[in-house]
Amino acid sequence: MLDTVDPRQWDFEEGYSPVVVLQRGGSAQAAVGVRPGVVRLELPGDHAVHFDVAGRIINVQREGVSYRRTLDNRLLASRRVEGRGWSRQPTPDDPLAFLASEHAHARSVLESADRTGTIRVIAGRVGDPVRWLHAHLDRAAAFDREALGRDGRALRRLYLPIPILPPDQYASLVVQVSEGCAWNRCRFCTFYRSIPYRERSVEEIVDHLDAVLEHLQGTVERLHRVFLGQANALLVDNEILLPALRAITERLSLLPADLHGRAKERFQAEHPRWIDGVYSFIDAFHRSKTVDEYRQLAQAGVRRVYLGLESGSRRVLEVLGKPPTVDEAVALVHHLREAGIATGVIVLVGAGGRSLAREHLEETVAVLERMELGRRDQLYLSRLVIQEGGDYEERARRDGIEALDRGGQDQQIEAFRTRVGAGRRASFPIAPYDITLSRSIVPLDRR
Ligand code: SF4
After folding, report:
1. For 159-432, which CATH superfamily applies?
2. Per residue in 144-160, pLDDT tens?
3. How far is the centre of ligand 1, averaged over its atoms, from the C-alpha of 196 (Å)?
4. For ligand 1, what atom is nearest to the CA of residue 182?
């Protein structure tokens, strides 16, 4: 039955059309709306589930908490706190059971629609609402616990671990062009300890890319960035990187950097699998490419790279187990800029503990000044997380370095924010980088 009801009967989130409301006994049971790439199922109370075109959950909103699903079916939970952004929340003990129960809502909505026929359209045009609901919810309803487990396992077979991503890359499609970390000796980092460093061949990269794209059909349309992994992937020779980038942009449409406004929207509408660029970590202590080589990468789609500077102090770097290549890091940022690639510089808050705190702050600020970061660059402040019994803790104990506690780190963050670009407002964004948040594969939504 097709009917029109007062839109105020269901105050649906803006931007979705059409919106179909399911009613039983005069009261609304659920509403379903669509916008490009997203199906939103709203249930009574403060409860909504978002699915992508493949029927996979993007996120669930329940009683003020937003649960983001990672591609391998783990969860990140956060709640908006007035004036303080988002705060982390505990996640369900059994994420698969949680996700399966949220997928089950799609199934019960369909069963209810098949039984009652009391469906009303409050926005947009829908020919046959029951068929319409099936067209948009069948895939989501098919994901029971077993199907979710299969999906996660299949994805894990396609990837080596993705233990960390920059905060603005959580919703990127990861393409692994190398394995492990070519340095792998920083005392504070164990992400790739057990993985021998290896650069993949072009054929391996293209096979991996095709397998990932095949698996993520219907999901990849929401991932508008490509991040090259594993660790400092830009070390890989251009002879491999350039054909790999070509393969990526033959399969995903690279948004021209100079498109803006209407022209940009038109491009995105005409190319559902658009990406705004390719991104990667980089380091300053292996052979640097020439400006021309970086320029080739920029022309092939590389937009920004992330450089773990950690500290401008050579003494602090020595404690961290990182090569003291401060001058090389400054030169690298300038070379990248000349080639048209922006840099996200990561500084480790609390590195060197209390004893080296002043030197860490002063010398890091000085190095950042020398880098002359601009509008397209970013500065990330990442708290040092000391692993119990780890190499950093052992070295700090040996050197009598007392860790900077949370309060001390807060003060250091404040000092960095005040000092960087002192006397003038920093023209580049300064953002937190929480490594404990990103220990999971690619959450599907950008926040
Ligand atoms: S911090 Fe970066 S360079 Fe150092 S070991 Fe970890 S991944 Fe490698």
Report:
1. tm_1862 like domain (3.80.30.20)
2. 999 999 998 899 899 99
3. 13
4. 8
